[in-house]
Known about the structure:
With 118 residues, this protein is α+β, with helices and mostly antiparallel strands. It is built from 2 helices and 5 strands, in the order αβββαββ. The model has no long low-confidence stretch (mean pLDDT 95).
Amino acid sequence: xxxxxxxxxxxxxxxxxxxxxxxxxxxxxxxxxxxxxxxxxxxxxxxxxxxxxxxxxxxxxxxxxxxxxxxxxxxxxxxxxxxxxxxxxxxxxxxxxxxxxxxxxxxxxxxxxxxxxx
Length: 118
Ligand code: 5GP
């Protein structure tokens, strides 16, 4: 029987290219792809290839992935030529933080003036 894609494994399937998405960048450690429901003209998600549920799961062993995710987010922002006007990096965590997909991701948002955080 074919396994159903749910929010718990959707990003894993994007990494393995088992479901379609617009991948912007991929290396051995992480994948960056366009958000399916963009909140800004540029809305890209950067995720680790090895599943981490959320930012609470960052520890002494895996902390370097966060640096690499931010490094790649900035690289993409520069490639998209939004670094001078500006952009936003967001990490949502759990229910109050607005995290819908339980797989660590950084949102890169830009291409328009963003409102204040709330
Ligand atoms: P969160 O609310 O968890 O911080 O953000 C999850 C993000 O994942 C949302 O912006 C949502 O639009 C995006 N998303 C959910 N499902 C898919 C999908 O199947 N493909 C892509 N590319 N993005 C998705």
